[in-house]
Design brief:
The chain is of the alpha/beta class and 291 residues long. Helices cover 33% and strands 25% of the residues. It folds into 2 domains: 26-140, no CATH class; 151-285, no CATH class. A hairpin with a 4-residue loop joins β2 and β3 (43-50). α2 packs across α4 (98-109).
Length: 291
């Protein structure tokens, strides 16, 4: 291959890489100003930039510390944009809780430097990454998500007889290992604490069914733009129950509504208590359109 052909090929490949980095939407990634949120992996990435300073000798000196400070500030801004539920953002919630705001700042300050790049002029850009699983979710998830007792014990405590559930194994089929909600037809935006209800308004997936331990470790649910990748995910397991979302509620909760028929399928199995408790839920949403 001639040298000029190699140069042209290199430019094309570089252009493809830059287009993918800046314009494409990988599975589960929400691109924002100065960074992005990966709703599949639970990672938030922010960038920071700092111009070079001229030293006493007249030479340009890179300022990676300033770029890191800028990236940390941008990471906090991205955290604050994340929605907890409905129209409640992390920033709005943290504004009334000083300890939560301090905790967010600590998570951002502890972020890992993923990449650092200098220009020929010694300007520097830094990429930092932090997980919103763990300490971050411990700060912002509602207090009413706690360790839950067995559902049967709750019913018996109210004087109601515990009804025998029919498991998938009883029916001679493989037990369900997770739940995938196909919401691609709806305008569903990822939130940290989604709620799923049936057509009558009964909660199908909410704090009643979730163990805080698993919610903090893995998120209340994961989001994906791609059904095939959701089906292949370890989170959903080898035999997930797949349902279609009917609509969103028009109130501030923005709850996802499933049909009565799908709700009954979920109700008929006891293994749902296990996979819902462990937050083995994926919501597949419409792929964002590049701006």
């Amino acid at each position: 291959m001639k040298i000029h052909q190699m140069l042209v090929l290199g430019i094309v490949v570089l252009g493809m890489v830059l287009f993918t980095e800046n314009n494409a939407f990988p599975d589960g990634r929400q691109t924002l100003e100065n960074g992005h949120i990966d709703w599949t992996t639970g990672l938030v990435t922010a960038t920071g930039h700092a111009a070079a300073e001229i030293n006493t000798e007249g030479r340009a000196v890179g300022m990676p510390g300033s770029a890191r400070t800028c990236a940390t500030r941008n990471l906090i801004a991205i955290f604050k944009q994340m929605k907890i539920s409905g129209d409640l953002t992390v920033g709005e919630y943290a504004s009334t809780h000083d300890t939560i705001l301090a905790g967010l700042e600590k998570v951002a300050q502890d972020a890992r430097v993923r990449r650092q790049m200098y220009t020929s002029a010694m300007d520097v850009t830094v990429w930092v990454t932090a997980s919103f699983y763990g300490g971050f979710l411990q700060l912002v998830l509602p207090d009413h998500i706690r360790e839950i007792p067995k559902i049967n014990e709750l019913k018996q405590g109210r004087g109601e007889p515990a009804k025998k559930k029919i498991t998938s194994a009883d029916a001679g089929t493989q037990p369900y290992t997770g739940l995938i909600v196909d919401a691609r037809r709806l305008n569903v935006a990822p939130v940290l604490y989604p709620t799923i209800i049936n057509e009558q308004g009964r909660e199908i997936y909410s704090s009643v069914f979730i163990s805080r331990e698993f919610a903090v470790q893995n998120g209340v649910c994961a989001y994906s733009w791609d059904m095939d990748q959701a089906l292949a995910s370890d989170r959903a397991g080898s035999n997930p129950l797949v349902i279609k979302a009917l609509r969103k509620t028009g109130d501030k909760t923005g709850a996802i509504v499933m049909s009565m028929a799908d709700a009954k399928i979920l109700d008929r199995t006891t293994e749902r208590h296990t996979f819902l408790k462990k937050c083995k839920v994926i919501v597949v949403v419409k792929r964002p359109v590049p701006k």
